[in-house]
Design a protein that fits this description.
ARM-type_fold, endosome, two-stranded antiparallel ribbon, VPS35 endosomal protein sorting factor-like, elongated, single chain, mainly alpha
């Protein structure tokens, strides 16, 4: 490879563009950076067709090109892989099958939704969470683990079996035990145990025992000893009854062997079977179930169990449902307790909706509601009053127990009903005293458009209910939910708000007040100006501030703020309201306050730019809350979210051409947000942008004032960058700030930034600490950027020639590089490029208004000599790196690059340089790395020089 004592002499090009013309241009078909992808794979599908010598092109599956499309189409990953590995015909068949299945599933689901109403399944959790109790509960059953076991003896004849079943029912009845003093959690556990016992008995062929468990579960619903818990008890018990009814139905369907016409092989009944497909033996079994249930002595369990298996009527007749539903509706009239009766009607309506086809007779729904109206006076009778005194329950609380059942019944009635039905029900409700419960149910059941068009009428009815026992705030809340979905006529809105807010303002209980405001605030924000919104916010603060009542309602207050910020038309006006920040001060719990501020700043995207000091102060207040919540325990994702929000606010504050005010804002922000690296980096970028904008305005001709300003910007960046923790970020910002300072002809500030960057490189740890950023890879890219900048940076008169370049080289050499990677050798190659460009008479690029070294030195021989000396040192270090690598492919690649650099940038007339280039070329030939197209010109130069030298030797 030759001696390391090779003196470099830079080749000076006569034309500063000639260096760009060394490599020839040639036409290519593809972009060199295009990723390699196989679009069509010619192959023969084995076994699908005889070989013809042709190949079958198979296109790339669409799933490989659009991975998100399969997720949108509902294909699971395993199905995707199965499809991709099949031949095209099978693939098409599978895709069509999957698509058909998804369409059929969707149609089936749509067929089941027969009524436009909230399904019962979504109501259950709400009921269980709302209706709880701390009182002791009791349950009557003989099937829990403590109960006695029943020994079932085998019977011979059919008559004996029937007699035995009746005796067994009586035995279970007599053996019932009363479990006392159970907490709510224990009670729920007992119910779950009964559920498991029922399923276990059924699967162990003990049908009678399963029936008896269902009967005893239904009996629990006749007990209203703890009224507060009754709605939740209804949900728990009816879930068990639903399971029992489904078990009976599936058992009958399994026993029904169906023979298709012309077939002798039995199959299961299809989904939409008719009674004529059912064998007579199965029909007889079905009748036996209903006969057995009809023999239950007590009314409530008899009703509930029959309703549970009502779906099994489909095995007997297709026209029995309407009559059965109406018969059960009339039977419920025999239940004396109005609360038990209304929930029995609710269960009947729920079962009826699930088993009847869309468009079937729904007269039973209306009949159930009218039956409730006929017995409505019982709610206020002496029996109920005495029971409430015993249980110490307020009458208003008692009335709310009816709302889940009544809401479901009336929503079923109102679903798809004309508006005339609403008028009819309102007229019937007027005839009843204490009709506030009915009024609330009607508003919750009918379409919001029907209710909102009669808002004033309902407000008049609500005003007449103030002295009734049903909570008036619930009426206002229900009405508010309707008008938020469908607004009333525009000419009535102001009158409506005045009436409503007068009523809400008179609510003394903070819980009642906040429940109404939580709903109505959306209506006010959507359809009124910021003045009305400000008044409402002030009213909220006034009501909740006394006795720190707000501490109990953080969830509702957060909902109110979310509705305000998501529906406000003028976000800047919201931030400028004098009552808005006092509303935020109600959030004394830090975690809640942080979430509220995050939601506000997230919605702040509507604010493009602002220079209003009031709005700016409000935004800074919100940002300070988020910043102060960050501590050592804050997770990285939370820190990132907060940083992004703060950066967004910083970018939105814009004072136009008042650059000094803008810089003052950035100074204030730096003092407020010193704990977040991302925000500090954003501030540095903003100040650099400010300096660049200043230069563009003056078109590079700085005045005394603008010159001082851009120097202040450079000083801001220089002071701010050391506060950032990440070394990588600091390095990038030092270089960027130095480039901006150089752009503004602030040579001293630029020199300080570049020196700080070089000093920081020495602190860089070369061992990767973060998988996302490898120090060596980062430093290679960073140094190349740095070298391209140093080309146009003029030398300081206080220091020697190429002082910054020399400092950078010394720093790079001092780092602990991995010798196997050859990273330092590649950097030395880049340094040779830069030094060669620096030796030219005219540089390839300049910074406007900045005199680079080509102007300062004018290709002075002493300057060129200094460049050659530095190039010689770099070359020696580079050859030393090659020796450390040893014989390997990477050594050959670096040698190849160095040979190209020597051939294109150095003076080959120098014998030592020529010999070195020749040795490097031979090293490349030895390793076989000579297939690069750009070697044509360098090799041509070497060949020419070899020919000339040989000819001279002959002479």
């Amino acid at each position: 490879m030759g001696s390391n004592n090779v003196e470099w002499r830079t080749l000076i090009f006569p034309d500063n563009h000639s260096i760009c013309k060394v490599l020839p241009k040639y036409e290519v078909d593809d972009h060199p950076l295009k990723s390699t992808a196989v679009e069509r794979i010619p192959r023969r599908i084995l076994g699908s067709q005889p070989s013809t010598g042709r190949s079958t092109p198979v296109s790339t599956p669409a799933a490989l090109l659009q991975p998100l499309s399969d997720a949108l189409e509902g294909l699971d990953p395993l199905t995707q892989f199965a499809i991709q590995e099949t031949d095209p015909l099978t693939q098409m068949a599978v895709e069509v099958s999957v698509t058909d299945d998804s369409v059929n599933t969707k149609k089936s689901r749509e067929r089941k939704i027969s009524l436009d109403m909230e399904p019962w399944s979504s109501r259950k959790n709400i009921i269980l969470a709302k209706f709880t109790t701390s009182e002791k509960l009791s349950i009557v059953t003989s099937f829990l683990s403590e109960g006695e076991k029943v020994v079932v003896k085998a019977q011979s004849s059919a008559v004996d079996k029937v007699q035995h079943r009746l005796e067994q029912l009586d035995y279970f009845e007599e053996g019932s035990q009363r479990k006392l003093d159970l907490s709510q959690a224990e009670y729920v556990g007992r119910i779950e145990q009964l559920n498991k016992e029922l399923v276990s008995a059924w699967h162990s062929e003990q049908r009678v025992k399963a029936l008896k468990i269902a009967i005893q579960c239904a009996k629990v619903l006749a007990d209203s000893d703890v009224l507060r818990f009754y709605p939740s008890k209804f949900v728990l018990i009816t879930d068990i009854l639903d399971i029992f009814g489904q078990l009976v139905y599936e058992r009958l369907r399994t026993k029904a062997d169906y023979y298709k016409p012309g077939s002798k092989v039995p199959t299961a009944l299809p989904e939409g079977f008719t009674p004529d497909m059912v064998p007579e033996s199965v029909k007889e079994t079905c009748r036996n179930w209903f006969y057995k249930i009809a023999s239950i002595r007590e009314l409530v369990p008899r009703l509930y169990v029959e309703m549970a298996i009502l779906k099994s009527y489909s095995f007997l007749t297709s026209s029995e449902y309407s009559a059965a539903l109406m018969r059960l509706t009339h039977m419920i009239r025999g239940i004396g307790n109005p609360l038990v009766a209304v929930y029995a009607r609710c269960y009947l309506c729920r079962v009826g909706i699930s088993i009847t086809a869309p468009g079937a007779d729904t007269h039973y729904l209306v009949e159930n509601f009218y039956d409730f109206l006929d017995t409505y006076s019982q709610l206020f009778g002496r029996y109920v009053t005495e029971e409430l005194k015993i249980q110490k329950m307020p009458f208003s609380t008692y009335l709310t127990l009816y709302t889940p059942a009544l809401d479901f019944i009336l929503q079923a009635v109102a679903s798809g009903a004309p508006e005339s039905l609403l008028a009819e029900l309102l007229e019937r409700c007027r005839t009843h005293e204490n009709n506030s419960l009915l009024l609330n149910t009607i508003m919750a059941a009918f379409k919001p458009s029907y209710i909102s068009s009669r808002t004033l009428q309902f407000l008049d009815l609500i005003s007449q209910c103030t002295k009734q026992d049903f909570p008036s705030h619930l009426l206002l809340r229900t009405l508010g939910l309707c008008v938020c979905v469908c607004p009333p006529p525009a000419e009535q809105r102001r009158q409506i708000v005045n009436i409503v807010w007068h009523s809400i303002g008179n609510l003394s209980n903070p819980e009642d007040y906040i429940s109404c405001v939580e709903v109505w605030v959306q209506f006010v924000v959507q359809y009124f100006t910021s003045r009305e919104v400000n008044v409402i916010i002030g009213d909220i603060v006034t009501h909740l501030a006394p006795d720190r009542a707000y501490e109990q309602y953080y969830t509702q207050l957060k909902t109110i703020v979310d509705k305000i910020v998501s529906n406000i038309q003028d976000f800047e006006a919201l931030l400028a309201m004098d009552n808005f920040l006092p509303l935020l001060d109600l959030f004394q719990q830090e975690t809640v306050k942080v979430e509220v501020c995050k939601s506000i700043l997230t919605a702040c995207n509507a604010v493009q730019h602002t220079s209003d000091p009031v709005i700016t102060n409000a935004l800074m207040f919100l940002c300070n809350v988020l910043h102060d919540s960050v501590n050592a325990l804050t997770v990285e994702d939370e820190r990132r979210q907060i940083s992004e929000l703060l950066c967004s606010v910083i970018r939105r504050v814009d004072y136009g051409r008042d650059f000094e005010q803008q810089l003052s804002f950035y100074v204030e922000a730096r003092g407020s947000f010193s704990n977040l690296d991302t925000v500090l980096a954003q501030l540095v970028h903003c100040v650099n942008t400010l300096a660049v904008n200043t230069r563009q305005i003056v078109r590079g001709h700085h005045t005394r004032k603008t010159g001082s300003f851009v120097r202040a910007c450079a000083a801001y960046c220089f002071i701010t960058i050391p506060s950032i923790e990440s070394v990588f970020t600091r390095l990038e910002l030092y270089l960027l700030s130095g480039q901006v300072a150089l752009f503004n002809n602030c040579l001293g500030q630029a020199d300080a930034c570049f020196k700080a960057a070089i000093g920081l490189i020495s602190e860089l740890t070369m061992q990767p600490e973060d998988k996302q950023k490898n120090p060596e890879n980062f430093l290679i890219s960073y140094t190349r950027n740095f070298l391209s900048t140093l080309l146009v940076v003029p030398d300081s008169p206080d220091r020697g020639v190429l002082n910054l370049v020399r400092m950078l080289l010394n720093t790079l050499k001092s780092l602990d590089w991995d010798p196997k990677n050859g990273s330092l050798a590649y950097l030395y190659l880049d340094v040779l490029n830069m030094l060669s460009a620096m030796a030219q008479e005219n540089y390839l690029y300049h910074v406007d208004k900045v005199e680079s070294n080509d102007t300062l030195y004018g290709s002075d021989p002493k300057f060129i000599h200094e460049i050659d000396k530095m190039s010689t040192l770099v070359l020696a270090e580079l050859l030393s790196q090659l020796k450390q690598l040893g014989p390997c492919r990477k050594q050959a690649l670096i040698a190849l690059e160095l040979m190209v650099k020597i051939a294109t940038l150095a003076d080959l007339n120098i014998s030592t340089i020529f010999t070195l280039a020749l040795n490097l070329w031979q090293l490349c030939l030895k390793h076989g790395n000579t297939d690069t197209k750009y070697l044509v010109s360098p090799v041509k130069q070497l060949t020419t020089l070899i020919f000339i030298q040989n000819k001279l030797l002959l002479l």
